[in-house]
Every structure is written in structure tokens, then in C-alpha cells.
Design a protein that fits this description.
By secondary structure, the chain is of the alpha+beta class. It contains eleven helices and 14 strands. It has a five-stranded antiparallel β-sheet. A three-stranded antiparallel β-sheet has the order 4-3-5. It is elongated and about 85 Å long.
Length: about 350
């Protein structure tokens, strides 16, 4: 019978295993692969089909006895099997595992998730990192479980692939019930903090989550006026939901209006992503020089205008600078031989 700690029994977890028997395991595929190369053909140390941890542990002891000794000493295989036994024991203390409820839409199919059901996210005290989800119909954890329905394994992966919004939306499909090591909170980017507010419209999604997941410095300012007042206030324009930082500039040089900056954002976005919902103007507070997290290399705060290398086309930076310092109302950026469409500023940002 599958072992479920008393504190987890109220979650109706692993219903298939409780009904039909069989234990679930977290194990190292790298260690298993190395051992498999030394075992005789048709022998396996994949922990599948066992009713208890004790049963599998006995199987490993039998392998050590049969194949793991030479002249009454452990050979290489015996050493690996002994290390594997210890690793299995460390990994499968369920009291250390996170219990997480899936509240998204039921996905169905092999590896799918059911709305309202609780799942184990295994980890150990020694290595409290996300490794996968144990499904109620699986007897081993599998690494790409969340990824199989579209969630990236890390925020960095989401940024690199332009999937920040998907990362945020789909991570919200999980609610943590038990998280003794804090692994689930770290992986989902929802770590609790009594000092930091929940995300707001004026905050960059990608930098907010980097702060939550990795503790990266993040100092958002609510609006243009606050940024002008702040000693090190700066403007950051990004596109593709943070997948590309278009420009940065300290506010001490900004003489144009917030509306003009929105128009610059729209014009620059039209050259590449052409997605007004994904382009934004943010105000933050950093002393130069300071890195700015984002996709495609991110950006940097310098003492002046910084623009992404993609905008190295002759004349673009100069025209944007003229707008920023208030010398012209609009950049009239030329892409190739064509002036960009005269579309309005990013419509999702409200003007004062």
C-alpha cells in the first residue's frame, strides 16, 4: 500500500495508488542510467511496479549481493548501487514533498491534470529544487510534467522564448497546500514576502517575478511624476512582455511627456514585435550603471540613453533622443524605406 503521511491524507492524494496499490518514487535518472550500463541485460533499477520502498530497497540489496561484490569487496557497480540506495531514501521522504492543488482547466490524456485534484511535487531537504509532478497514475516522477502542458521550467526559459505571460498565467493554475522546503513557492514565483506588494499594472511582470524567484533587486515607481522626483528615477521601455528591452534612460534627461514616451514605445514595437499589448513603459529607480533583466540580452541603465543593439539602424537612436529631450514631438522612425504606420501609443496604458 502506498505510504501517505498523516498530514497529507486530508488531500485525497494519489487516488489510483490507494485503490490499486503500488508506491511512487522520485529517483535520479542519471544514476539509474549509469547503473544500467553495468547490470546484466533485462535487469533494471527503475523503481516501477513496487508496492513499497522496503520492497525496492530489498531488490537493490539483492543486486549488490549478486553483482556488486568481488573478493568480498564492493566493485564499481556495488558502489553505485549503494549510493543509489541512499539517494532513493533521501528523495522519498514524503513529509518533505510539496502538496499542490491544480486549479486550472482539466487537460486530460496521458500526463494530464484534473481540476481540483492534489499532486505531489517531490524534493529532498538536501536538494529542494523542482523536479516534476507525481501524477496519480504514474509510479515515478517525470521531469517535464508541467512543461508538457506549456509551462516553462523557469522564468529565464519563458523570457528567452517570449512566454512570460504564459509562465505567469499557467503558474497561477497551481495552489500550494503544503510546502515544507519552500520549493514549490520558489518554482512558481509566488514566494511570500511581507516587504513587497503584490504585482500591479505599473510593475514589469518579468522583473517582478525575477525578484520573487531569485531575489533580484526590483524598485518600481508608480508613474512618470514619481520617477521625476526620485533621485535615480529612470524610464524603461520594453516589448514582447519583457522579452526585449527597447531602451532605458535616466529621468533627469527626460523632458518629453509620458504620452510621448508611449508613442516612442509604440513606434519601436512596430519595427519588430508589432504587439501593442506586449509593449510597455515602466518607471524604476536605479543608479547607473545597473543591469535590467529582460529577454534578448536584457538592458542596462547608463548615464544617458541606452537602446537595444537591434535599433542600431542609422538615425534611430538620434531621433529617439531628440524626442526624449523634448526637441521634437515624435521620432518618425524609418524602417528600411518606409515610415512606420502612425498608430497610437500602446492602448492598454491609460494616460493621466
Amino acid at each position: 500500500m502506498v505510504y501517505i503521511p498523516v498530514g497529507h491524507q486530508l488531500y485525497d492524494i494519489l487516488p489510483m495508488c490507494r485503490k490499486t496499490g503500488g508506491e511512487v518514487f522520485s529517483y535520479s535518472s542519471d544514476m539509474e542510467n549509469e547503473i544500467r550500463k553495468l547490470l546484466p541485460d533485462k535487469e533494471s533499477v527503475i523503481p516501477y511496479g513496487y508496492d513499497s520502498y522496503e520492497e525496492f530497497d530489498k531488490q537493490l540489496d539483492d543486486y549488490i549481493s549478486q553483482y556488486g561484490t568481488e573478493d568480498c569487496k564492493l566493485n564499481r557497480l556495488g558502489q553505485l548501487l549503494t549510493e543509489y540506495k541512499a539517494d532513493i531514501k533521501r528523495r522519498n521522504i514524503k513529509e518533505n514533498w510539496s502538496v499542490v492543488k491544480y486549479v486550472g482547466k482539466s487537460t486530460g490524456g496521458i500526463g494530464g491534470f484534473t481540476h481540483g485534484r492534489y499532486y505531489y511535487w517531490p524534493c529532498s531537504i538536501e536538494n529542494s529544487e523542482y523536479e516534476g509532478v507525481i501524477d496519480d497514475e504514474e509510479f515515478t516522477s517525470y521531469l517535464a510534467s508541467i512543461g508538457s502542458i506549456g509551462v516553462y521550467q523557469s522564468l529565464e526559459d519563458a523570457v528567452a522564448d517570449g512566454g512570460v505571460k504564459d509562465f505567469m498565467r499557467q503558474n497561477s493554475d497551481w495552489v500550494i497546500a503544503e510546502d515544507p522546503t519552500g520549493m514549490a513557492a520558489r518554482h512558481l514565483g509566488i514566494e511570500k514576502s511581507g516587504e513587497f506588494p503584490p504585482p500591479e499594472e505599473y510593475m514589469s511582470d518579468v522583473r517582478y517575478m525575477m525578484r520573487q524567484v531569485h531575489g533580484t533587486e526590483f524598485k518600481p515607481l508608480t508613474d512618470y511624476d514619481r520617477a521625476k522626483e526620485a533621485k535615480h528615477g529612470c524610464v524603461i521601455i520594453e516589448g514582447d512582455y519583457g522579452g526585449q528591452v527597447y531602451l532605458t534612460c535616466p529621468m533627469k534627461y527626460v523632458k518629453c511627456s509620458h504620452k510621448a514616451l508611449l508613442q516612442v514605445a509604440s513606434d519601436l514595437d512596430g519595427m519588430y514585435w508589432d504587439n501593442e499589448q506586449g509593449c510597455n513603459v515602466y518607471y524604476e529607480d536605479y543608479k547607473s550603471p545597473h543591469g535590467v533583466f529582460g529577454g534578448m540580452g536584457g538592458g542596462v541603465i547608463i548615464d544617458g540613453l541606452w537602446m537595444h543593439p537591434d535599433f542600431n539602424e542609422a538615425g534611430i537612436k538620434e531621433k529617439v533622443w531628440e524626442v526624449i529631450i523634448g526637441n521634437r514631438p515624435r521620432a518618425d522612425i524609418v524602417a528600411g524605406h518606409f515610415i512606420l504606420d502612425q498608430k497610437p501609443y500602446c492602448s492598454q496604458i491609460k494616460l493621466d
